[in-house]
Amino acid sequence: MIEEKKQIVDNFGRKHTYLRISLTDRCNLRCFYCMPEEGIELMEKENIMSLEEIIKLATKFRDLGVDTIRLTGGEPLVRKNFGYLVEELAKLGVTLKITTNGIMLDKYLDLFQKIGLKKINLSLDTLNKAKSVFITKRDYFDRIMKNLEKALEMDMQVKLNIVLIKGVNDNEINDFIELTRYKNLTVKFIEFMPFKGNKWDWSKGVSEKEILDIVSEKFGNIEELKNPKHSTSNNFKVKGHAGSFAIVSTITNPFCSECNRIRLTADGKMKNCLFANSETDLLTPLRNGEEMDPIIINAIKSKKYSRDGMDVKMDPEHYEKNRSMISIGG
Ligand code: SAM
Ligand code: SF4
């Protein structure tokens, strides 16, 4: 008899093949929509997965059918010995991706090229230096822009992540679209989402519809692109532009039906959803030498269909019990 391959499948039949690993809850920026004003209680060092533990868990997930791993954080590039880790993960034969604020990218682009990591999401909420300082509370704008140019010169597949907030950067939507005229990149607008301590209020958010209205008013001809399977964004292009744009409409038009994502926090907790309040500790059983497959396979069974049960609306009673985004890993 042929033994059936073990996979991570939830109660809705969704096969989970995409793992996002947070390498740290530390960051060199303080984006106000991500890091609560009062700061966060940082994880104790001994509770954070070691590099070897990350590699072991990533290997387990790979063996259970995960074919894509995104490294995130906090800021993944501030993790000590990041270079060693990414080289080891590249040996797993999965598609490796990263989400970064770009500050330290220059240090790693050659390595990324060598190991075949090409997909980089770079967070850049504004094209204005003074505003960047306001949003991030740090002054790294010039360095980030230089690293963005370098990544494009090296033919990396770059997506810019832009969290749109009314009165802050919504007046720059078309400036970002203008970037796609000659540059082969994607600008990805993200609807502002609620997490513990980020003072979310949807009146500050900008919806998918508003974005499309603003872009079509200026650029007219917008082409809808075919969304890849499991995509969490709607994808578009202004006709004739080299690059494209995307919208992550988690609030107004969530993409949960085909969700294939699992998250692993830096302290080794498996989260079935960005908005999940419940977590499964993988680090303790790993350290105790327990068999991990059944723990992972059972953990996914508690996944809710959409937004951890907030199907209709975002509920403060729910999301205030979640972690802050910086300690989840977006
Ligand atoms: N430090 C890296 C970076 O900024 O790209 C990786 C971690 S960051 C938490 C991952 C992504 O989450 C970023 O693109 C960030 O803009 C996004 N993000 C953070 N807080 C958010 C919020 N409240 N709503 C929507 N996106 C958010
Ligand atoms: Fe740091 Fe990224 Fe959060 Fe900004 S969005 S504070 S760069 S983790």
Description:
The protein has 330 residues and is of the alpha/beta class. It has a single domain, classed as Aldolase class I (TIM Barrel, Alpha-Beta Barrel), CATH 3.20.20. 28% of the residues lie in helices and 17% in strands. The protein contains 11 helices and 12 strands. The protein has a 12-stranded mixed β-sheet with strand order 7-8-9-6-5-4-3-2-1-10-11-12. Helix 2 packs parallel to helix 3. The longest helix has 13 residues. The termini are far apart. The model has no long low-confidence stretch (mean pLDDT 96). The structure holds S-adenosylmethionine and iron/sulfur cluster. The site of iron/sulfur cluster has 12 residues, from loops. GO terms for molecular function: 4 iron, 4 sulfur cluster binding; cyclic pyranopterin monophosphate synthase activity; GTP 3',8'-cyclase activity; GTP binding; metal ion binding. It catalyses: GTP + AH2 + S-adenosyl-L-methionine = (8S)-3',8-cyclo-7,8-dihydroguanosine 5'-triphosphate + 5'-deoxyadenosine + L-methionine + A + H(+). This is GTP 3',8-cyclase.
